[in-house]
Amino acid sequence: MNVVTKSGSNEFHGSLFEVVRNRIFNARNTFATERDGLKRNQFGGVIGGPIVKNKLFFFGGLQTTIQRSDPKGLTTFLPTPQMLAGDWTTYTSAACQSGGAIALRAPFVGNRIDPALYSKPAVELVKRLNATTIDSCGKVLFGRKTNADEWFPVAKVDYQKSAKNSLFGRYEFGHLNTPSDYDGKTIVSIANPNFYRRVKSFVLGNTYSINPNMVSSFRGTVVRTSNVKTFPDFFTWGDLGVKSLYYPSNYPKMLLLGVTGSLNLFTAQSTPGITNSTVYQLAEDLSRVKGAHQIGFGVNHIHEMMNYTSSTTAPGSFSFTGTNTGLGLADLMTGRANSYTQSRITNEYFRQNYIGLYLQDTWKATPQLTMNAGLRWEPYRGPYDAAGKEAFFDKARFDQGIVSTVYPKAPAGIYFQGEGGIPDTNRFISNNWKHFAPRLGLAWDPKGDGLTVIRAAYGIFYDTAHLHQFGGKRDTAPKGASIVVNSPSLDDPWASFPGGNPYPIALDKIQKQVGPNWLFAGNYIGSNIIHMMYRYEANPAVYLPGASTVANQNQRRVLYQQNPAIGQYYSNIVYADDGATRNYNGLLLQIQRRRAKGITVQANYTWSHCIDDGYNDVIQNNGGQLQSRRGADRGNCELDRRHNFNMSTVYETPQFASTALRVLGSGWQISGIVRIVSGPYLNIGTGLDNALSGTLFTGAANGTDQRPNQVLASPYLPNGGVNGWLNPAAFAQPATGTYGNLGSRNITCPGSIGINMGLTRTFAVREKQTLQLRAEVFNVPNHANYCASASQGIAPAISCPDVNLNSPTFGRILSAADPRIMQIALKYVF
Q1: What is the reported pLDDT for 515?
Q2: For labelling alongside 162, which of 280, 567, 615, 741 has CA 20 to 30 A away?
Q3: pTM for the whole structure
Q4: Cβ–Cβ < 8 Å for 283, 298
Q5: Model confidence pLDDT, tens digit, residues 472-496
Q6: If DSSP codes are grouped into helix, strand and coil, which group holds residue 586?
Q7: pLDDT for res 706
Q8: Other CB atoms within 10 Å distance of the CB of residue 211
Q9: How many Cβ atoms are within 10 Å of 420's Cβ, its own excluded?
């Protein structure tokens, strides 16, 4: 996104504005029992003018946003008094389990559990949650506060040194505080910590006319961001009675818990941490006109630094998936966890450099044909750790038993910065100096009348991964460590523990003007991205018929099977390479009616398809179902939208002859935006490690990286809605030691429809002063857009519908985007 800041002039100009949203104007979310208590005020202003006339000018502005919101409608499931008394018959019935009635596994009979077998920490946890169930299934309704205070000042000074030379300096400061979303009642409402975000930016620019045909433009930029996460004190696992747990000193009291189909308490993303980054950029662009050619060339250099402190699972994280009893909630109450994970607090000091040079020529070949050709050189310079504490795993070293010379006690196969074999001495990825990117484009007016234009373009584009992508390395020794205990007891989890680089290729369109006001365009959009990041588990557990359990998965891992003496020191190893690809092809149709008789219309429709191997933006967990078959995870892109229609209209009321009508009805602008988008594609997860491969969880959205079997032709319920979008009978858990036949990302979410309208009028106050009144309505028909994370947003909400086959709410829609919201704005311009 590019942003242009205005400059001051020889006259003083400015504006003041305020935009208000309030619950009294809004509708109720379809999942909420009452309207959101939204109160949002956005206000500010700008002013610009001369400091020294014709020489020195200033421009400044301030925007402040204050939001208070308490949305309702979120759900979870907790033990009811009946369940706490030992009777699970209602909770296991078909009325509470979308996949049909469930029988608790042996030794439990008749779906009853003796309360004497309940884990004491689990019982204490339920008490401290302070949540009340509202039905016999244990449903709990709650909300999460969304409060934020933001202010954003900007200041710019322009200096016209001479007719040939001008300079400017711009400073921006963004300040955003968002407190925890705890609703003050029940702890299940917490998902986010206290965030304190700061962004500072300074730009210095110099434009110099070397001669009448050549102009130089220089920019120097510094951007610094600071993100701090803190968390309020609640309680730890030790406070609940869990034994033998280490807890970091000077750390807020919290814990991490995931229960399939029930409770997710806090998350690794909510743990305290600090992320600071600084970016320095220098850019020089030269433009020269020579005859029919406009030649441009330049250089761009960026140095990026990111330092952060991460604590992810430092408080200790228990996972209950239903592996033992058949239900995650029953596993919790009996204290039979699937896994316990705990990591160290670690620090990262990532650095990366970028340099790019380009040469391009825009050539007016004929009055009807314009061509553009260029070449960019953007060598890839791999990121590195300034502290020199990164570790790497090499299978060949493991096979040969080669140990590190820096840390001789480390197991064979792992090596560190400062010894031979590290790519380019200390980088995560080797440098690549051969990145040349040609560009070619043309615009052809076949008749020379300006009514029909054919455009085409081809180009190769390189991109550089963001530094946060390598954050998963934080758990790598020696600076970090993460320990996973399989099948632990909640009461005492340690009791049984023995002491590069993507680049897309793009193509283009034809457009035709019809009449004086209408313009039609048809576009083919194609891109092919190669060298995308792909991550996979390099040390999975091998299934051994009759001898495989969760408890012995580390003894079944590939490296242990190959060499038990060395392999015992390795658990999960996440490999990342640049072998993934993505293909996108689309037809884009556009229509535009230029302003005539007070009416303006713009509309476009895109029919497209995106296929890839799975998008992985952070190297952290396993990214595929079958580690040995990358193609098994190829499918629709997660953000693929097969159909996307957008239309915007503006109608300006006419100047009426009657004085009364002119005062009341003239000068109004009525605008509308319509957006209709088909649903995204989802992955269905088993929620269980049926393959007993010991791969890491990929998030709460589907429970694991494994997919089930599809046993019916259609996965959807007829006339599916809120209580059933997916048909549980269409899926089945794979047999132990096997993977499902369901393809990757081939199940769709519901689509969304958005209709927004606005009404605007500008009143003249006096000469050079106006007052603008604006009223806007979002989601005018109050349509329930299920599973959208924002008002008519493209991104789906996490776990909507519930795609964890092992969850009691599998296939149900759990959330919806914003209901109808209104806002009123007032702006004074002088």
Answers
A1: 64
A2: 280
A3: 0.80
A4: yes
A5: 677 676 667 778 888 889 988 877 6
A6: strand
A7: 87
A8: 8
A9: 7
Cα 267 to chain centroid distance, Å, stands at: 16
* Number of other residues whose CB lies within 10 A of the CB of residue 562: 12
| Structure-token pair, residue 786 | 């299920």
What are the tokens at 563? 């060499």
Radius of gyration of the chain (CA): 30
Indicate the pLDDT class of residue 514, thresholds 50, 70 and 90. low
Q: What are the DSSP calls for 644-660, one per residue?
A: EEEEEEEEE----SSHH
Query: Long-range contacts made by residues 661-666, C-beta under 8 angstroms, separation at least 24?
Result: none
Instruction: Please state the length of the chain.
Output: 830
Give the bridge partners for 750, in sequence order.
none
Give residue 162's pLDDT: 94
The DSSP 8-state label assigned to residue 679 in this structure reads P
Q: Would the pLDDT of 749 be above 50?
A: yes
Mean pLDDT of the chain: 86
Strand 317-320 relative to strand 256-259, pairing: parallel
The sign of the torsion formed by the CA atoms of 73, 75, 79, 82 equals positive
Whole-angstrom distance, CA of residue 276 vs CA of residue 308: 6
Cβ–Cβ under 8 Å, residues 508 and 587: no
Per the CB < 8 A criterion, the answer to whether 725 and 748 are in contact is: no
d(CA 405, CA 764): 78
pLDDT of residue 513: 60
- In what helix (H) or strand (E) does residue 396 lie, and over which residues does it extend? helix 395-400
Q: How far apart are CA 150 and CA 498, in angstroms?
A: 50
The angle formed by the CA atoms of residues 319, 72 and 198, to the nearest 5 degrees, is 75
- Answer yes or no: are the C-beta atoms of 63 and 151 closer than 8 Å: yes
Hunting for tokens 């015992």 — which residue is that?
Answer: 568
Using DSSP's 3-state secondary structure scheme, residue 120 falls into helix
Closest CA to 758 of 826, 669, 678, 675: 669
Eight-state DSSP code of residue 632? G
- Measured between alpha carbons, how far is 396 from 382 in angstroms, rounded to an integer? 23
Q: For 284, list phi and psi in degrees, rounded to 5.
A: -130, 125
> Which of 282, 288, 279, 313 minimizes the C-alpha distance to 300?
282
Cα–Cα separations (whole angstroms), residue 667 to 19, 99, 211, 672, 761? 21, 58, 47, 17, 6
Q: Would you say 278 and 308 are in contact if contact means Cβ atoms under 8 Å apart? A: no
pLDDT in tens, 294-317: 999 999 999 999 998 888 888 999
